[in-house]
Write a structure and sequence with these properties.
Length: about 160
């Protein structure tokens, strides 16, 4: 299947925006989604629209779909749902990543996983029932449960 990169998946998000990758271009990795992944990206775009509305500002997608070869090249998790089109990393300037995470966590939005990655927010869906799992990247590089309390810093992250 050849996906149309110009396809709008929602009012604000295009297929190109959710599949673009400098790493894929540099390493000549085909990052074209198949039909099943495309269906998932449409679901993800609906969630991203809800996030955009909640935050009241555009989202800049820093990572969306990653073909398995691309996911390995960027050091992504072997269990990452980026590879099935159900996760995106984004920034929403001028909000910090923690501000965006807290607003999403306090909302009624339906998501599976929300991660504060220090400089970005990761949000994901899953095929099963959503868990509303909250996580953060600790200063030691490990993923831990929950968002930081108070203002995050490099000590308590």
């Amino acid at each position: 299947m050849t996906a149309d990169r110009d396809e709008q998946l929602s009012a604000s998000f295009s297929l190109a925006e959710l599949t673009v990758s400098d790493t894929a271009a540099r390493l000549r990795i085909d990052n074209t989604p198949d039909a099943a992944v495309l269906a998932n990206l449409r679901r993800l775009a609906v969630l991203l629209e809800e996030v955009r509305g909640l935050l009241g500002r555009p989202l800049v997608i820093t990572s969306g779909f990653r073909a398995p070869k691309l996911n390995r090249a960027v050091g992504g998790s072997a269990t990452s749902v980026h590879v099935i089109g159900l996760a995106a990393d984004f920034i929403a300037p001028p909000l910090s990543a923690i501000q965006a995470c807290r607003q999403i966590a306090e909302s009624k939005l339906v998501f599976d996983q929300l991660i504060w990655g220090r400089t970005f927010t990761h949000i994901a869906l899953r095929l099963a029932a959503p868990r509303r799992q909250l996580m953060r990247l600790a200063p030691n590089g490990r993923w831990v449960m929950g968002l930081p309390q108070g203002e995050p810093n490099d000590v308590d992250g």
